[in-house]
Amino acid sequence: MNLQIQILYTLDFQILYVPKKIPRHYRAVTEGCGQKLLSQICRKIAVCMTITININSKGENDLVGLTTPTSEAIVETKLKDGIVTIFVAGSTAAITTIEYEPGLQADFPQMLSRIAPKNVHYAHDKTWHDGNGHSHVRASLVGPSLTIPFKNNNLMLGTWQQIVLIEMDTRKRERKIVLQIIGEYDS
User: Fold this and answer.
1) CA distance 87 to 176
2) Where are the domains of the chain?
3) Is the pLDDT of residue 4 over 90?
4) Domain spanning 8-14+50-186: CATH 2.60.120.460
């Protein structure tokens, strides 16, 4: 598997939770909370970061593992707990989780070909004459994104569960994977 991974940090640092001083209209809610608790809450802020990974696929039915680059990106952000959304830009690829082993790498594309076979009529092919109507249908069934929680910089995946990109287009493609990471940052 030849992955070309390029990580571009947009580091927007969109602060989703801020105040060190609680506004007046929140006083009723916070009344009775100790000062120590309030100061602990207000030291933590949620941050949103966007990381882009470029991958060159081998074409139809190529499954590319994304667990390692996703985990590495989370560690590099230094965010402790949060969620990561993995999104593929494009309408002929999808993101999901599977047990990333040779048997399922063969089974998954075969299952998709039973659900949306190549050898049937797709109106898309008549419109664009590119022969990938089945690719669009398959990708829309699986979906372009996935959101996974993480705790202490670790993805909360099952033992054998791994994140994969599934290429469904009929040709090799350069895919842009967008990781949107929202997590807790200790100030």
Assistant:
1) 8
2) 8-14+50-186
3) no
4) yes
